[in-house]
Amino acid sequence: MGALANPSLGVDTVDVAPFVRVAEDGNRRLDLMVGGIHCAGCVRKIERAFEADPRLQEARVNLSTKRMTFGWQGTDVSPSDLVATVAGLGYRAVPYDPETLASSNLREEKRLLRALAVAGFAAANVMLLSVAVWAGVAQDMGTATRGLLHWIAALIAMPTIAYAGRPFFSSALTALRARQVNMDVPISLAVILSATMSLWEAATGGVHVYFDAAVTLLFFLLIGRYLDLRARAKACSAAEHLVALRAIAAQVIDGDGRRRTIPADSVRPGMIVAVAAGERLPVDGRVNLGRSDVDMSLVTGESLPISVATGAQVFAGTLNLTGPLELEVTHEAEETLLADIVRLMEAAEQGRARYVRLADRVAQFYAPVVHLLAAVTFLGWMLLSPIGWQTALLYAVAVLIITCPCALGLAVPVVQVVASGRLFRQGTLLKSGDALERLAQVDTVVFDKTGTLTLGTPELVRSPGTESLSLASALAVQSRHPLSRAISHAAKTENLDIPNATGINEQPGAGLEGLIDGHRVRLGSRAWCDVEGSDEDGETEIWLAAKGHTPARFVFADQLREDAVQVVAALKQRGLEIALLSGDRPEAVARAARAVGIDQWQGGVMPGDKVRFLTRKAEQGRNVLMVGDGLNDAPALAAAHVSLSPASAADISQTAADAVFQGTRLGPVLEALEVARRSGRLVRQNIGLAFLYNAIAIPFAVAGMVTPLIAAIAMSASSIAVTVNSLRLSRVRKTPAAEAS
Amino acid sequence: MNALLYLIPAALILGGLGLAAFMWALRSGQFDDLEGAAHRILDDDDEPLP
């Protein structure tokens, strides 16, 4: 997050003009994706910057979507300036075309919401009329009045069904065209048939009018559909977010030493590219000149930066922290490691799309059975009794209506909504409903190390004393290096008085130097502080050297999450297979694996290897839960059967994962698994309830004894039973995760 | 039963009004940014009194 952008870094050379949309009345609009917005402060900061500009009619940030819209009239506003101003505030802004970019999910959501509103309106009014009819039949309503009420109901219901039923009809058609059956096929059939039959009944002055059932059914089902889509919309395509990470321009140094800025796409191997401190690398390359610390978390998942000097290989998308670098480009833009990761992820996302939801799997055998039953009813009455084909058809349709999978359609979404609501209260954001189904099937858990089993940030574990610490933090406050931050943090928590340091200078890859009370003080590597000997135990350390003091040693470690050991033990106890995959050095991985009690581990793993490991597990028939946070984990998160990611993870990983958990504990992983398993049981119970109800109602329907009133009561009763059963999940029960802590 | 002649249209019109209001809200973007508004209220951008 907080991608740093440099306003001088040629955003102006990227042509923004094609992204400006001109309306017929001369109004112009420009949409930007803005990376790094996460609070009101960011919104205010950006909007303030444009408030005073009288030429702009609109400059508004949308916090939910992390997008920004500009509106103006005429041609005196330069769109590139707008982008550059946002970039100048420290946010990476990328223009995009909202027509082409996956706003389809948003359109779909609005379409469903409109359908839901119409269905709700119609359901209330038709039910009002139906209640009048049912009450009137018991008393003295005349057939003329009843006919009038039926016709009014028809007038409301028919357009409603045509409009609000479209999501189901189109989905059913798509399935049928692919020669498959999903839940929408029996739903569509029941709604269309009941509406047609009711219309015929109303026209002939009959009593079997099912408009209320048809419309209420649509209303209930649309609620389920809408909840489901809302949950899924949060998990918009990960590739979209990757755009924000890619440096869009590169500063190229020509043979004669002149610098020019060109789009990163047009950089060719062999060119020399300059990267200032604080910028993301636009290309894969080898360091030609300069020293710096580079945050390589994209490749290794490690948060500790790596010192690079001439000859080191560096990768696009990684962050140059401390000193300017000149790189010789080794790969074209489409061949960088980042581009590889994007491709791996897209491939993995497609693989997951093949998952068939439980409801649809049930529908595959449910629908044929129901349709066969209706056919048997029709033929049976036709052949074995003298009632005529119209009445036989009426009975057959009644079978279809009574078996319409209303409860079945609600059984899954309601449980999912209750479960995700429960997880949300505990700080776990579940992004799709079927993730819960997949989570319940997990039998193998694969962890990443840094940032997942551990907190991902180094902490000071051994300090030479408060005096040294306060000296060290005087220098450290000036640096962005994670170890410096750890020192500042430690000094702040101990409430130390920090002396004033002047003339601080950071030597990339070595350390800091400055003057405190007129004395020269150095903080940094062993060599930087002139300490003899070598680092004996492989711990992460830095030294403090000052005149008149013996050099002091600070030791850091990436701490395990406080409940990591208990959670791993609890997972094992449930019979789950556990593995640890990390891009870190094998020794460090082995140490962490021992500490938490994982027997199966691998170190030095590249992003592609993680995916291969998961694929191998999947081929062995295992359902793997991947828990990871780094950018290097993103393809694996997308490839796993289901995935979790901590909220501290890279944006892309959070997007790729099925759920994101907050806090510094690992307990939510166990909690999510438990809730998923319980909701899996509830879904099966609900489906069982729906079947039970059908088993009772079907004989009556086949026997031709179902009236509209019975159909309406039975349908509502089963829906309510299913909903109430689902709500049991939200009751707080002491979970094993709570016991583990 | 004559009451029906105005009660049913009244129910339909009232319901229709609600529906139309919702459709208007949806179209004019009232539901586009559900998080931003909650933060904006905290944004005290009044000028201090002289």
In short:
Chain A has 741 residues and is α+β, with helices and mostly antiparallel strands. Helices cover 49% and strands 18% of the residues of chain A. In chain A, helix 3 runs antiparallel to helix 7 and helix 5 packs across helix 6 (184-203).
User: What is the CATH H-level superfamily of the domain at 428-454 and 561-677 in chain A?
Assistant: HAD superfamily/HAD-like
- What percent of residues of chain A are in strands? 15-25%
Shape of chain B: elongated
Shape of chain A: elongated
User: In DSSP terms, counting alpha (H) and pi (I) runs of 4 or more, how many helices of chain B?
Assistant: 2
CATH architecture of the domain at 428-454 and 561-677 in chain A: 3-Layer(aba) Sandwich
- Unreliable residue stretches of chain B: none
Helicity level of chain B, as a percent range?
Answer: 55-70%
Low-confidence stretches of chain A: 1-13, 234-239, 734-741
Distance between the termini of chain A: 31 Å
* SS content category of chain B: mainly alpha
CATH topology of the domain at 428-454 and 561-677 in chain A: Rossmann fold
Strand/helix succession of chain B: HH
Strand content of chain B: under 5%
Largest interface: A-B, 23 and 23 residues
Quaternary structure: heterodimer
Largest sheet of chain B: none
**Number of separate strands of chain A:** 27
Strand order of the largest sheet of chain A: 15-27-26-25-16-23-24
Number of beta-strand segments of chain B = 0
- Helix % of chain A is 40-55%
